[in-house]
Structures are given as structure tokens and as C-alpha cells.
Specification:
Layout lengths: L6 E5 L5 H12 L5 H10 L4 E8 L2 E13 L2 E13 L8 H16 L1 E6 L6 H9 L21
Parallel strand pairs: 4-5
Antiparallel strand pairs: 1-2, 2-3, 3-4
Helix pairs in contact: 1-2
Length: 152
């Protein structure tokens, strides 16, 4: 059996929160607890899903898919917001398995395209995405915003 055949991907539930918190700490240096992750899974459920990749009983990676309606298009907006595979499991098909699952979920939901953002200098990610059929589409810009209190 090849590595990719042994990868199981499923939509995460609250029961997966501890493993998600562990992986998220490695990837994002996040200090979010499993309780906070479980709460976020509920809070984001209407627009974002997390898919967990496992080999045997070990969680080895995850991908987050955001699917939202847009005002100016009949198509749903699908965006990969996170993709992470533990270092020891990279280049063994885990990322491909996650992406295949996310692409299928986006298509089933009604999206005709899947967008993603990646670090400008993250060349290994660029090579991976190009290798699985993604191409450059647009320039993304950002600006840090100050959180404000709502006005009455």
C-alpha cells in the first residue's frame, strides 16, 4: 500500500480538537487550546470546515475550506484558508489527499473555482500548488486594521 492510499481524510469534529490544536501549534505557533478549537469549529461551521488527514490513528495534517455566497455572483466563493502537513509526512501524498478532498467538497457545495493564498516567498508551496494544477490568478494585497468598537 502506498502512503497516499493509507491517508484518511474526514471533516473534523469537536472530538478532533486536541489533535487540531497540536497541529495548529506547530504550523501557526498558535496557543489555542482544544476547548477554543472546539468552539471555533462550531462558530465557523456555516462558512468554514476543517478536514483532518490521518495515517493509522495519527493526525498528520489539515486543510480548511471556506465556502460563502457572494452578492455579485451566483457561484459560491471557495477558498483554501489553511493547508498544513507535519514535516515527517510531507512528500508522501498527504497534501495531495487533503487537496483532492477539499476540491471535491467545494465542487459538491456548488463552487466552480477554488482560490488560495500562500506566502509570497513560500516557493515549496508554489511548486506544490502548480504541480496539482493551480495557476496564478491575481495579486493579493493586505492592510492591518485596528479593531474598533461599534458605533451606536
Amino acid at each position: 500500500m502506498t502512503m497516499i492510499e493509507s491517508v484518511r481524510v474526514h471533516q473534523a469534529t469537536k472530538e478532533d480538537a486536541a489533535e487540531i490544536a497540536r497541529l495548529n501549534k506547530i504550523f501557526n505557533q498558535s496557543q489555542a487550546t482544544s476547548v477554543q478549537i472546539a468552539q471555533q469549529l462550531d462558530a465557523a461551521a456555516s462558512v468554514e470546515r476543517l478536514y483532518l488527514a490521518q495515517i493509522a490513528d495519527r493526525a498528520v495534517g489539515y486543510a480548511c475550506l471556506r465556502i460563502v455566497p457572494t452578492i455579485c455572483s451566483a457561484d459560491l466563493w471557495a477558498e483554501l484558508t489553511e493547508l498544513f502537513v507535519e514535516e515527517g509526512y510531507r512528500r508522501h501524498g498527504v497534501g495531495r489527499a487533503l487537496m483532492r478532498h477539499v476540491e471535491e467538497a467545494a465542487g459538491v457545495a456548488g463552487a466552480s473555482e477554488l482560490f488560495l493564498l500562500t506566502g509570497f516567498r513560500n516557493m515549496s508551496a508554489h511548486h506544490f500548488y502548480h504541480a496539482i494544477g493551480y495557476s496564478l490568478r491575481c495579486l493579493t494585497m493586505h492592510k492591518a486594521l485596528e479593531k474598533l468598537e461599534p458605533t451606536s
